[in-house]
Amino acid sequence: MNVLIVVDMQNDFIDGALGTAEAVKIVDRVTEEIGKDCYDQVIATLDTHEENYMQTLEGKYLPVPHCIDGTEGWKIRKEIMDALEKRNALLIKKPTFGSEVLVEKIKELQPDTITLVGLCTDICVISNALLLRAACRNTEMGVVQDCCAGVTPEKHEAALKVMESCQIQVK
Asked: Are 58 and 96 in contact (CB under 8 A)?
């Protein structure tokens, strides 16, 4: 079984509160990747915060309200959501960078391969990749570099190098 994990392709990270030009550029590529027949299961994560975000530890260090549950910024970009619906993707809300729920689901599935795409390479993509690497130490893993974007291009590249060091193939 081959699993694709689409990390946080939400409006706030694309062209909203924390959006970047690089994030906008990967939307079509991520949509294309979701549509590939090589994946048996597609899972998407949603960064999900509550109204009290600014009072949380994350809000202290990143004082930009984003991905507040139910808001337009929290929603997955329309064309990506359409592609996810065609694949009957599983959606997982996560309250922080990495998702323990995602790890548990992957452990249940016991896939042969795991591929990650999404936002932000240097925060949520790498956090989930490293959690999955620890939980699934004998599973082939990869990240599609042109289907990811970081907070900056430099941080994107740095995160890819770290993942590669941890035996996550950069494709």
From this structure: yes
Task: Record the pTM.
Answer: 0.97
Q: Contact at 8 Å (CB) between 146 and 170?
A: no
pLDDT digits (tens, 9 = 90+) for 124-151: 999 999 999 999 999 999 999 999 999 9
CATH superfamily to which 2-170 belongs: Isochorismatase-like (3.40.50.850)
Q: Cα dist. 44→9, 52, 121, 128, 164 in Å?
A: 8, 24, 15, 12, 22
Provide CB contacts within 8 A for 167, sequence distance 6+.
Answer: 133, 141
